[in-house]
Amino acid sequence: MSEISTKPYMLRAIYEWCTDSGYTPYLAVKVDGAATVPMEYVRNGEIVLNISFGATSGLKMDNDAIRFHARFGGVSREIYVPVNNVMAIYANENGQGMAFEPMLGMTEQDADEEEESSAPSLSLAPAPSPAPKPAPATQNEAGSPPDDDNTPPKKGGRPTLTRIK
Which DSSP symbol is given to 5? Predict the structure, then answer.
């Protein structure tokens, strides 16, 4: 008998922790042919989904997939994400959660064997605040470009998930 993957159990546990703590659970997904998501929102082969109670309808987190209905641009869509495609689940407010290595195109048995042979990549630290977008080059009163004094970016703004490889 093959060993059951811990990934779907961890996804459900972090989801429950987020909702119990009053946070908004977000799911980062690697998109391939097996995932059914609105492709117009996919960037670089990835999509981030709000899976909170208020944003979804009929959320079901099984051992093999996550299914729900959600509105995108006012249009209800059916979402299907294989558990193997999930890259992370985290609280939007503080970035705390857990990251996983996506195992695209693998069957459950292949994924279980892969999990046994490699250590999981877990992250429980909050994600750093996003760096501000660079402003266009401006000139100061003297007419020269501004100096870059290597000061750290200002803190604040929305937390984001940062994957470190």
Answer: P
Q: How far is CA 32 from CA 6, 10, 50, 67, 98, in A?
A: 22, 22, 19, 16, 21
Partner residues linked to 69 by β-bridges: 57, 78
Q: Give the span between the Cα atoms of 56 and 67, in whole angstroms.
A: 10
SS3 at position 20? helix
Residue-wise pLDDT for 47-61, tens only, equals: 999 999 999 999 999
Count of structural domains within the chain:
1
CATH code for the domain in which residue 20 is found: 2.30.30.220
Write down the pTM of the prediction: 0.64
Among 124, 91, 115, smallest CA distance to 7 is for: 115
Higher pLDDT, 102 or 94: 94
- 15 is in which domain, residue-wise? 7-117
Q: Is residue 107 domain-resident?
A: yes
What whole-number distance in Å separates Cα of residue 87 and Cα of residue 163?
9
